[in-house]
Known about the structure:
By secondary structure, the protein is mainly alpha-helical. It has 6 helices and no strands.
Amino acid sequence: MTTPTGQSGSERAVAELSALLEQLSGALPRADTQAAAGATAQPQQAADEVPEPAFRNLDDFMRLYLAEVVERRVLSGPKSGIYWCDRWWAHPEAISRFYAMWREWERARIDDTMSTWWLHHLDPHLSTMTAEYGPFAKCEPGRHTEPRTLPAVAAPREVLDQLPEG
């Protein structure tokens, strides 16, 4: 499918990823390159100053980055694939995991550790959420099934008192 600008979804995703990578490479100059060129670095941010996130919220991260970059075949009829719910935000576990992934992505963007993010954050979280027993297992695009959380009974006071924080 092409957009009004004439780009397909994958072409747009590649262009956006390329722009992001260019922005990142410009935002994170390498010290050895600067020293060799005799360039002066821009003043470093104060240690207590937090850089602006690339995405203003989790929904933007999901729609504008993750859904555009991650490629998986979604389960469809007899075809194999991952379980997915287009209403990911209706699953408490998914919100928690995706939020953690987004915050770690923002850190990896600043620290230039994107490979670590893919291996240690996206891959395990996405595998867990989209697996046979994950939160999306009873969903598919266009058909959301309300989550069923784990049953839990409040712990007795005598058990809690035995714990360090009890």
